[in-house]
Amino acid sequence: MLYRLGGNYALSMYAAGLAVECMLRAFKLRREVSFDEKHDLRRLFRGSGILNIDPATLRRSDLADDQVHSYVRALQHAVNDVFILWANDYRFASEKRLRAHVFRLSTGQKRAKGDILKASCQRLLGAAQTFIQKGLTLWTLSSGS
């Protein structure tokens, strides 16, 4: 919504990554109550155990074996994009600083045409949305609901 209403890319990117962080914390809280990862998504991802879900759990949602594999791959891909494009300090970032940061991230890669910050924001929002949707499904299935 922030993205569509005002093109506030820095705040949109921060909120998207924060949503992923919150979901990872929820999964981790099911396993243990420690809070030692700070805002390190890689450590939170490992601590959450989100990818340690038994494939049989996903099959309960009527997914075939190849769909289960695709589901997990899509989840991993989304997390990788979030890892690359998000940092907790974005909450303090100006659009100018964030634009320079994503420009540096893209050095040596094929760059999106147009506004690199807008393209990075779209990529991060898509990845966060994929992660949240798939995470909600895993949460529901692993809760037995």
Key descriptive features of the protein:
145 residues, mainly alpha
Brief overview:
The chain has 145 residues and is mostly helical. Helices cover 70% and strands 0% of the residues.
C-alpha-based Rg, rounded: 16 Å
- The count of β-strands is 0
| Overall form | globular
Overall mean pLDDT stands at 83
Q: Number of helical segments?
A: 7
Summarize the SSE layout with pairings.
Layout: H1 2-6, H2 9-31, H3 41-48, H4 55-59, H5 65-85, H6 95-105, H7 116-143
Helix pairs in contact: 2-3, 2-7, 5-7
How would you describe the overall organization of this protein?
The chain is an all-alpha fold and 145 residues long. The protein has 7 helices and no strands. It has helices spanning 2-6, 9-31, 41-48, 55-59, 65-85, 95-105, 116-143. Helix 2 (9-31) packs parallel to helix 7 (116-143). The two termini are 29 Å apart.
